[in-house]
Amino acid sequence: MPQTQTMTLDEKLAIGCKAAKLWDAGDKEGYDRLIKTIPLPPYLAKVMKEKIGMEFFTRYNWNLSEVEAVFGPDYISK
């Protein structure tokens, strides 16, 4: 599986730190919204699609940009 990133590790860590501050401040909705802007790793999406189904990801608005870059834009709907 090729490694394709739409966001650098530093960008992902910065978002994670901001999200953690929201969590600590009691803003669980803000945390949830922000943490889902980090692209979901393709390997995790593959396992979750096989075990749970892609509806989980599309219903909860995960960032699937790296999944689409690796598996193609129609992977989610297959």
Explain this structure.
The protein has five helices and no strands. The chain is mainly α. It has two domains: 8-38; 39-78, no CATH class. The protein is globular, with a radius of gyration of 13 Å.
Features:
78 residues, mainly alpha, 2 domains, 5 helices, 59% helix
| First-residue to last-residue Cα separation | 18 Å
**Could you say which structural class the secondary elements and strand pairing correspond to?**
mainly alpha
How does the major sheet shape up? none
Overall form: globular
Q: Count the E strands.
A: 0
The helicity comes to 55-70%
Order of helices and strands: HHHHH
Low-confidence stretches: none
Number of discrete helical segments: 5
Strand content: under 5%
Rg for CA atoms: 13 Å
The residue-averaged pLDDT reads 87
Estimate nothing, just give the exact number of structural domains.
2
Short description:
Helices cover 59% and strands 0% of the residues. The two termini are 18 Å apart.
Write the layout of secondary structure elements.
Layout: H1 9-24, H2 28-35, H3 42-51, H4 55-59, H5 65-71
